[in-house]
Amino acid sequence: MVTDDANADGLADVGVPRTGGMDWGFDNTFALELDWLGVRIDPVPVAAPGLLLVNEALAVELGLDSEWLRSPEGVAVLAGNAIAPGSMPFAQAYAGHQFGQFSPLLGDGRANLLGEVIDREGRRRDIALKGSGRTPFSRGGDGRAAVGPVLREYILGEAMHALGVPTTRALAAVTTGESVWREAGPLPGAVLTRVAASHLRVGMAELVRMRASDAQQVAFAGYVRRRHHPEVVEGDWLGLLSAVVSAQARLIAQWMSLGFIHGVMNTDNMTLSGETIDYGPAAFLEAHDPGAVFSSIDAMGRYRFGAQPSIAQWDLARYSETLLPLLAPDPGADAELIEAATERIRLFDKAFRAEYLARMAARLGLDHVVGLDAEVALGLVDELLELMGRERLDHTRTFRMLSKVLRGQAAAGGDGSDAIGELVVDRGVWEAWRDRWLAALSGIPSATRPEEVATSMDAVNPAYIPRNHLVEEALAAAQLGDLAPTHALLDAVSQPFTERPGLERYAAPAPASFTDSYVTYCGT
Q: Catalytic: which of 108, 126, 268, 298?
């Protein structure tokens, strides 16, 4: 379906040498079952690969030898200069709606899926290189990545994982010994080794609908079902749609509760597994602001923080359209099936709201209250967020400080106010909300002490996130060869819920002067 047109620019395997090194245990179902959905192509070797980081914990999960990964032979595989036993490097094809406009053929323009492995928990995981050179889908790009975007994805992926958010992760990052040219000029090159539940995307389903045969459409949808939603009965395409909708509703609820902004929610950046993927223009809120946009390319605010649930629903509607040929081959005769699919998309809002309320209630300790009315809980959440926005309160820090308020800790000023009250201008509005919140918490069963509730709040309200100024500080140092700030930041965000002495700067908001002018860029 894809390979003939995709090879039009003449690219082919570059003949990267095979290595007799570590057995990765590759089991390549995508490349074998869906070989028509991309191009078999090796990564392009780099001049002088050098190791930046190896994710020890993730290597253990995958059953890989981290010491071998650190060896020259291992670094050669991580850079794309050698191919591990059993690997079948493959550039996947997909389409996508980008800022609402359909692009009929995108694909891995700078990535290679090396293969799949079964981890120690029995989960199938993709291992792919990002920044590994040009492919037939590069669309004029150089196929490379710079150190900064590679380390950004490494840091944010590990932070999200530690926060309990489904996400792709980085197994390793290596330098290339080459420069990549961007608007800022020459930058040191790097390659990321990304691990994912899969790289199956809504945009991939869009390409299949547009260009695949009937048999290929069934094969792709069946592959998605078996790989990510095996609880769905074979051939139940409405059930598959519902499963993808539910997975995304849970994911977006987590983003919204934590103040995470993806930045570019194009359909080619929405996974069918329900994992977060691609950390280019991504950031966490500082001051709470539903209209916050940190992406340099989102001039109209399409992917602003507060719009993420509605954009996710829009993307899922595009996914439902890809299933219509399977659901309703004759649209005129199958209007009921089309309406049933539409109803599944409408249910995203209900599923998202339920998951979001549950997470926000836990952040306020309200999950301990027996019989609390959902509308009351939602009202408290909405009022707090409105207050935070009006007062420009830091999203992460404010939620973390609520447990201190519950514990009755006085502010440093010693005037009897609580820790958050010291930060607001309109103290009366804050205290009115605080008193309503504490009144709601009075419904906690007598057997549960306030300290237990406060401790449970600390377990879901992080002290440390990858704050934007700290990420930029780490990336700037890394480009000069200093990885100490990166290691320090990774140490903090890898244990986000446990406050530790000496890490106060990692919990503090960025200076307002930084946040007011901060933008992020795509990692291309």
A: 268
